[in-house]
Design a protein that fits this description.
Layout (H helix, E strand, L loop, with lengths): L6 E6 L7 E6 L1 H28 L1
């Protein structure tokens, strides 16, 4: 995801404990997430309907 530019990362090395990597979504990542959600929601609704029919 870093290579695709959808997230940025940074390391935080506290004085005690292990170093941690933090992730943040970029504007490009937010746009891709919106596109994915627009495609996913209708599919999820259809799958939910199918599962209810099978219950």
């Amino acid at each position: 995801m870093r290579d695709a530019g959808t997230v940025t990362t940074r390391w935080d090395a506290p004085e005690t404990g292990r170093a941690r990597r933090y992730y943040a979504i970029t504007d490009s990542g937010r746009a891709q997430l919106r596109t994915f959600a627009d495609v996913w929601h209708p599919i999820a609704t259809q799958v939910g309907t199918l599962l209810k029919e099978e219950s």
